[in-house]
Amino acid sequence: MPSVGLPKLLQLICRAAVAAGVAMTLSCTGAGATSRIKDLANIEGVRQNQLIGYGLVVGLNGTGDTLNNIPFTKQSLQAMLERMGVNIRGATIRTGNVAAVMVTGNLPPFGTQGTRMDVTVSALGDAKNLTGGTLLVTPLLGADGNVYAVAQGSVAINGFQAEGAAASITRGVPTVGRIANGAIIEREIEFALNRLPNARLALRNPDFTTAKRIAAAINDFVGAKSAEPIDPSTVQLSIPAEFKGNVVAFLTEIEQLQVEPDLAAKIVIDERSGIIVMGRDVRVATVAVAQGNLTVTISESPQVSQPNPLARGRTVVTPNTKIGVTEDGKKLALVKDGVSLQQLVDGLNGLGIGPRDLIGILQAIKAAGAIQADIEVM
Hints:
One of its GO terms (cellular component) is bacterial-type flagellum basal body, distal rod, P ring. By secondary structure, the protein is of the alpha+beta class. Helix content is 23%, strand content 35%. It is flat and about 115 Å long.
């Protein structure tokens, strides 16, 4: 064996140790996907607030509300003009360039006075199109009845509508638009986050195991029992002494911690679109599945019988109907006990069935008590 110097030997040992460490890291991370606490939970109290308001959109090219059919649009137009010093009481108004709309938006958390937010404008009457319209000053109210923002601006529409004498085409929804940065925040919602003695994390997907893992990760980081799960969706946080008066710094540190979430086995089915989503922990007991389709085919081929050219008679149409019935029966397919999600999908795909039939099969397996998962039908 060739001799190796001490420095060279130390380098080889270090390289082997680094390679072993990398291999251990890869094997550990491959066991399950981890996520940041920031992506698993919300800080209780840090939330948006919904706002709503009623206003008028003007400047439409004859596609607004019909004033004779929509009385609230006419009343709003009259009231607005009277506030501007124009008296039209008793006059006949025949404009089609005005539409009554509802304006909605979400007040962001910690939104300060003077900052802007997006709003959505939706037609309330029989307006056909809001393209080219301008929203007049509209106060936006919260659930408590106070005004928190004021919206105004040009409405941007994604859809369009065009029509002629005998045909029309509509793409998207031309009666709903958006105004980017169209509202100015006028009132702030007080929330002293930095002065809180404790905080709570609200899990987006409630689960006992995930809540316990989040609390354990935080306690390991702090070095003391600072977090405690109180239910599947809430983790109580006690602010450590070194972070008193600086809760933001504490939350910034813990929201980057990595946690492996744990979710219950679930199958989500949307019968309207035929979409099926299965969780990775779905397991099936031993069960045999068969599926068959009954197809009925009806074809019409009428026969025309005509008399001779010089004969007296009339043309007769004789109906000729053919009916065929075929049944495409599949053999029983055996799904073994404790199969994984991939094996379950492969076994069901082996039956050659579509999503619609697969929905019925999954529900039948659940009814037989052979599937260990919750089925949620949307």
